[in-house]
Amino acid sequence: MSSPRSTLLWGVLVPPLVALYFVYTLQLHVIVPELTDIKEYPGLFLKVFFYVFKPPLGSAGYEDLFQKIRSGDTREPFVRHVVAVGDLHGDLPNARKVLQFSGVTDDFGNWTGHADFFVQTGDIIDRGDDTIALFDWMDALRGQAAATGGSVLTHLGNHEWMNVIGVSELKAFSTVIIFTTFATGDWRYVYPTEIKTFGTSAARQKMLSTGRIGRSWAMNYTTTSRLPLHPSLGPPNTPFPPESKELHYQKEDSELDISYYYSTNEPLSHSAISFVHGGLSPTYGGLTPFPSRINELSDSLLRKLQHRVQPPPHPPNRYPGLPLSATQAEIELYQANGPLWYRGWATDPEEKVCVDVEKVLAKTGTRRMVMGHTPDFEGIVARCSGKIIIIDTGISHAYGGVLSALSIHYTLTPVGNHEEQRWVEKEVVSALYPDRQEVLVVDEREVVGDFRAS
């Protein structure tokens, strides 16, 4: 005979619990009709979780998520943000203003993490007194960025090289090499007040050769860079053509049709940007493999110059000349047609540069080229639908130009069924100023392939 307590349990408590179970099951089937299909069970737990806890995705977000769960689509959108600035010429206050309004740094000059890459295209030195402070700041940002997964890419401009090589600005445009016109330490654009920040001329020479700044130049600065927009192309400065391709070993004097540098099987092969101070001339002989060929020459010549006995600076002393060990290729690196001095992308007519640029982009594995060197005091210049972008706007007070930065937002977004492997690739390139943002280019294209970021 059952006890009164068990009768109460079965007669009073159990029926409501059973009824609640059936009501809840019915509600769950209405909410999650996939319960009737065992194939849908892998996504059931997530759907119940989202129903119970309701994280703030919105109805469209829920539907997208559940669609991905049902289809087995593991693709994720990829985003990369790049900010670049041109010549700074010894002006720390203006440089800090630019990096702050472009979101690279905060009010205290520290890395914010809002950009994945910050790029400076050279000519940090000369025409101002803040040489030491600017180079120290670049190195500090480099460390802060690396600690949060970001990167700082810095370049040597013609003025950095003028201080360590010393070709006069007039003679740099001569195609005839006369060694008596070269010097180590062309200081014609160095202010006496800037020298005082080093202490003495000798101390300045030492710091730019084997001292703190010189060592940073050797370790952290290149003459040019290739920045892939998607990680499937490798890290910054992965050479193009890749070493796995026969084109990587093609001699520069063997002229090929630009179609050889593209492949329908690799639709992202040129999803990259080149950065350089002067420009990558279409007739320069060291473009490929890019950027490794140029940077190897740059490293070699810088090493020879920094570790020789330093001659007295010009002026007032005479030009002592390049090292006798400088190779022809190293000499050509610094000539008017080389990447430090070339100005054709800024000065040649539109019909010429828009033809020439296609060849250079094809050979360097890039979609657009960004450079400084030739200032436009009104703003950043984009030519040929943004394939050529010139970002020197005279930021330094020595010029009185405008404060500016270049912003590049890149996205690769999966679309359609994952089995089709369709993606939409988009670049939004903008000029940033203290009071406004101007969109220069919006490029969008559909590509097919497996581009999941590793």
UniProtKB/TrEMBL annotation:
- Which keywords does UniProt give here? Membrane, Transmembrane, Transmembrane helix
**Domain Calcineurin-like phosphoesterase residues, every copy:** 81-165
**Keyword Glycoprotein carried by entry:** no
Please report the organism this UniProt entry assigns to the protein.
Answer: Tricholomella constricta
- GO MF annotations in UniProt: hydrolase activity
Q: What is this protein called?
A: Calcineurin-like phosphoesterase domain-containing protein
Q: Does the keyword Transmembrane helix apply?
A: yes
TM regions (residue ranges): 7-24
Looking up InterPro entries in the UniProt record yields: Calcineurin-like_PHP, Metallo-depent_PP-like
